[in-house]
Amino acid sequence: MKRTLIIGAAVIAFVGIGVLIYFYFFAKAPALTTTPGSFPVAGEGTVPGTSGATGEGGPSAPAPVSISPRLVKISAGPVVPGEAVINTQLATASSTEETVVNYLARESGNVFSYSTNTKTLRRISNKTLPGIESAAWLPDGSAAFVRYLSGAQFSTINTYALSASSSNSFFLSQNLADIAVSSAGILTLASGVNGSVASLLRHDGTNPIQVFTTPLSAIRISFLGKSKYLAYTKPSGALPGAAFLVDAGHFSRIAGPKSGLVALASPLGKWVLVSSASGSALQMELVDPATGETLPLPVATIADKCVWAADDLTIYCGIPVSPPSGARYPDDWYQGAVHFSDRIWKIDTKGRYAQLVLDFPKETKGDLDAEALALDPANTTLVFVNKNDSSLWAYSL
């Protein structure tokens, strides 16, 4: 009887671990069916719980809370994982500019807009879309490409372009392995057992162009400047990973093999921030993709906890004070098995120094595990999500 109970507990534990891994990696990639000359195009899907209406009706979110003159808690959360978007636009009542933060409430999928000038919050879309796993915003905040699971045993990955203020929404192909957005367009990745195909689409989901193929199936992608791309193997502390510059379809290794490798390209493509792990110790360096030159940095974290300034000169990161020992990075952090107590640091790529920007625990008496950092083009406002409770914060730089 005792042996039966032990076996049953072990089975339950393994099932739980499997579910966590599934939701992080969006399940095992399906077989790739894209053939040369064919491209992923706008697909079909069902939006769960969609009300079909947009506007400012319905219950509103609690008002933002000013913790200090420079630190504001925009939302107690939970907000949708993935970067909020910050942009500067003309204020509606005058010709002056205002900086706004758009984000999605996780429970409803409603879109909210926060003005850093007036410190006010309003809902700009009440389209109901619960169960969103992640979101990637267009730079102007007009739409978010949200990803959620559906179908039998949640085996289908849907990618839906959710318009922030209109009904101009659409689906991309189902079961995309990754997506990145920039002013250049939408970069999508279809992956399967026989490799991956990356395509570039317009912001409305039309005119797909195949930009590269690779026999690698477990990769992540992003833009590297205007016409080049960054691809790197899905990070795991159990396997050595590598990062590649993709130029005109050709792959050139720029980093690796390194355990737990995560890469973050700068907006102009001059640098790639690379983090890795040696046991439980984190390491971080800058890589020049043009020359392969590497520059070790004085602080270290997981690159997904950082954001580049628009001019490629500055990086802001959530730097853990004492990462828990005995953990496997970045796996345990992604899966929520460990949490960090971060301070926000500024890294100057030209002077090669790091400067403390925000001692979050000192100001709030609580811990910060920073993720989904975002920065406005003028480098005046830093926004981040506290992974501990999925709350959204803004800090005036």
Give the count of helical stretches.
3
User: What is the count of β-strands?
Assistant: 29
CATH topology of the domain at 224-396: Methylamine Dehydrogenase, Chain H
- The CATH class of the domain at 224-396, by name, is Mainly Beta
Shape, principal axes of CA atoms: globular
Q: Write down the Rg.
A: 21 Å
Q: What's the name of the CATH homologous superfamily of the domain at 224-396?
A: YVTN repeat-like/Quinoprotein amine dehydrogenase
User: Helix fraction?
Assistant: under 10%
Largest sheet: 5 strands, antiparallel
Low-confidence stretches: 1-43, 51-58
CATH architecture of the domain at 224-396: 7 Propeller
Strand content: 35-45%
Q: What's the overall average pLDDT, rounded? A: 84
- Spatial sequence of strands, sheet with the most strands: 1-2-29-28-27
* C-alpha end-to-end distance: 62 Å
Structural class: mainly beta
